[in-house]
Write a structure and sequence with these properties.
Distance between the termini: 26 Å
Strand order of the largest sheet: 1-2-4-3-5-6-7-8
Structural class: alpha/beta
Oligomer: single chain
CATH architecture: 3-Layer(aba) Sandwich
CATH topology: Rossmann fold
Helix content: 25-40%
Order of helices and strands: EEEHEHEHEHHHEHEHH
Radius of gyration: 17 Å
Largest sheet: 8 strands, mixed
Shape: globular
CATH class: Alpha Beta
Length: 254
């Protein structure tokens, strides 16, 4: 199902459903369409899903970092007058969720992290020496997933376009370096909200040992493994992802 992109003030977002708000945060190369399985499923279970576009390529270069993305998220949550939100983040989106929780924990009801950065991640590299090579970029995108066919032509085309845009490359590298600088290891023990970790056993970007470390450092966390799955469980195995999460919500009375 396709969803209308709402544009209000400086915010672009999708909103579906009514009930407990879940704010979904995409990754560095992610798009709002990555979460179609969540958008289709959770509004039928009594949840309001909001997926804002993070201004990764719109912030001034000096402000292109995880901290300012978390502050942007706070502005969006205030704009929508949301309270006790559940934050669900993949990759960089998970990192932004964690940084928001560091700053505004009183407004976070729960966290859901899948393939989250914040501790350690492998990237496509510090530079893109073959950014004009479509087949090379296609291979790099496919490597993110356990099933290469998950990397549709639409996804590959979007990444190819991004890495061939000089401004976007500069912003991408700024965010990647910021993610390293804003390592959350010292902050995680202070984040006490219920946290659901859903991790692909075949994740090569944020490998399984990263999930184990998140689980160790987040005192109120539960870790669920997904077999034959890479960096984006909500895309590769949407039904299994949703089943794990709705069961966890039930157990936590969320």
């Amino acid at each position: 199902m396709s969803y209308k992109l709402i544009k209000e003030d400086k915010f672009n977002y999708i909103e579906v459903g009514e009930g407990q708000p879940i704010v979904v945060l995409h990754g560095l190369m992610g798009t709002l369409s990555n979460f179609s399985g969540i958008l289709d499923y959770f509004p039928t279970k009594g949840y309001k899903i909001l997926v804002p576009e993070l201004p990764i390529y719109d912030l001034p270069l000096i402000k292109t970092n995880v901290k300012n993305l978390a502050k942007y998220l706070n502005e969006f949550i205030k704009h929508k007058q949301l309270e006790n939100v559940i934050l669900l983040g993949n990759s960089l989106g998970g990192h932004v969720a964690l940084y928001y929780a560091k700053l505004y924990q009183e407004n976070v009801k729960a966290l859901v992290l899948t393939g989250s950065s914040g501790l350690y991640e492998n990237s496509m590299g510090d530079t893109y020496p073959r950014r004009g090579d479509y087949d090379f970029i296609k291979e790099k995108v496919q490597d993110v997933f356990f099933k290469p066919e998950t990397a549709t032509k639409e996804i590959v085309d979007e990444v190819f376009s991004t890495v061939n845009d000089r401004n976007k490359v500069i912003k991408t590298l700024a965010i990647a370096k910021s993610a390293i600088r804003h390592n959350m290891a010292k902050d995680l023990p202070n984040i006490n909200v219920p946290t659901c970790l859903i991790w692909g056993k075949n994740d090569t970007v944020t490998p399984p040992e990263v999930a184990d470390e998140f689980h160790d450092l987040l005192s109120n966390s539960d870790l669920y493994w997904v077999d034959n799955c890479g960096h984006a469980a909500m895309m590769e195995v949407p039904e299994e992802f949703n089943e794990i999460l709705i069961k966890w919500f039930s157990e936590k009375n969320l």
